[in-house]
Amino acid sequence: MHLTSGRTPAMLRVILACGYFLYYLPLSESVRDIDAENRLAFESNKITGETLYEGAKRNPGQIYTTAIFPLLATTAQLALFSEGKTYENLLSFLNLKDKNEIRTIFPTFIEILFNKDRIGSPTLNLNMYSDTSNRLSPAFIDTYNKTFGGKARTVDYSDTVKAANEINDEVENEGEFNNIISSKMIKEGGGLSFISSYVLTIMYSDKFKFINEKTINFKSGNKVINIPGITGEGVVKYADIKSIDAKTIELEGKDGLYSYIMVLPNKHDGLLEVLEKLCDSTAFQEILDRGEEVCAKLSIPAGDLIAKCDLEKTAKESNLLRDIFEEGRLELQGVSHKYNNTYVSSILHEVHLKPGPIIYDEPRELCSMPQIELEMNRPHLFYVTFTQKVGPIRTPIVGVVFDITGTTSN
């Protein structure tokens, strides 16, 4: 699927969420903790579903997405340097048992999910910033790098405008992003700013061919907006799932490592009902299990998307994480020489989902007679996930609520 950019006339607004959990079969089982990976994967499904549901309620008529991995990486990093009630809450949020599970699981996910040698693999940059008055310990910096692949350093916050420009310049150099943090979000003292960026090129397999461009009459409530789209034909996995009252379409990605899933509510304005049902950690797995291969003709929104999201809103929806944003409420050790006052001041994330090269072509002979025809012309969901070539426990990498008829900001 291609997402229409927030820079188009439709002025799409987005908050993005990405959960990235699965395991790649060639990795040695001797360095794996499959039970812990499964627990974290199912927790990711649950958090993704809950975040999309709450986000859609708060932002009616808008695109809303949730980026889970940067939030979980932040939580896990703090857990490695916490104790007492803070430690218990952070582990409960992750659904993990101890620090050893964190040290084992997260490097595995980084190795699997951001393999630059794999076609279509996403690129992730994790950065952490602290005021020079709150100097980070070498152990804290080294752990963030070795466990999560992130970079941590200090910035002089005494001039907030200069500090914001310095951070934004660094993030912009890592991708097509700009102005992710404002000077108003920077405060001198013990606050930690976790800032990340994510780029994914959507690349479909040859099983599905795009044949022409199409204008889609997108309707939500009483509003109708014409948006650019594309039509294609080919082999997809399709299901009409009664338990969530929605139709699902799964398109395979190039080389069969990724797949792109669309969930279209059967009721015209049934999106929130579907989202509420997807808060169940097992619901996403049912979507994956129920799909059967059919020949289909699909019309979907076209374009790319660059989106900024504030994951603090997501985190504060959990009672287990609210204290991490309050100075003096965390029981930390070894973070910095001001660890008693260290807290999280922001968790910001930017995502760029962009289409790969599209060559319009005639559909393959095996799909000369489509068995189903669908147009994504009303509010629906879009997920990016891995296929079973990567692992049997599949969770969303990206989850998107696609509704573009609203005019309010996030």
TrEMBL record:
Q: Which UniProt keywords apply?
A: Protease inhibitor, Serine protease inhibitor
Q: Which family does it belong to?
A: Belongs to the serpin family.
Q: Sorted alphabetically, which InterPro entries does this protein's record hold?
A: Serpin_dom (IPR023796), Serpin_fam (IPR000215), Serpin_sf (IPR036186), Serpin_sf_1 (IPR042178), Serpin_sf_2 (IPR042185)
> Which SUPFAM superfamilies does the record match to this protein?
Serpins (SSF56574)
Q: Name one GO cellular component term.
A: extracellular space
List the protein's name.
Answer: Serpin domain-containing protein
Serpin domain sequence ranges: 66-396
| Pfam families according to UniProt | Serpin
User: Care to name a GO molecular-function term for this sequence?
Assistant: serine-type endopeptidase inhibitor activity
Q: What is the lineage of its organism?
A: Eukaryota, Metazoa, Ecdysozoa, Arthropoda, Hexapoda
- Write down the superkingdom of origin: Eukaryota
Which species is this record about? Bombyx mori
